[in-house]
Structure prediction request, 87 residues.
Amino acid sequence: MQTTIANLKKGDVALIKNFDVEAIPLKLLEMGCLPGNRVELLQIAPFGDPLYLDINGSHLAIRIETAREIEVEIINPRTKNDLAKQK
Prediction:
């Protein structure tokens, strides 16, 4: 199973690995949603959609359907200690 942006937890940092260019809106590509770029999940809307991301310094919201199309490699997963510190 591949890990996608849709699988990230709040605070996770990942690198974009791969995606289908046809499935991603051009605007996301223009804002830096490209292989090798860093992505952090900042917020998840109350019903799980959309997701609020930081992609190389650009803050944007994307739909969960789009997030499922962007394959990533997690480089800094959230830990239970991180969650405890936030409270």
Remarks:
- The chain has three helices and five strands.
- The beta strands are 13-19, 38-44, 51-55, 58-62, 70-76.
- The helical segments are 26-30, 64-67, 80-86.
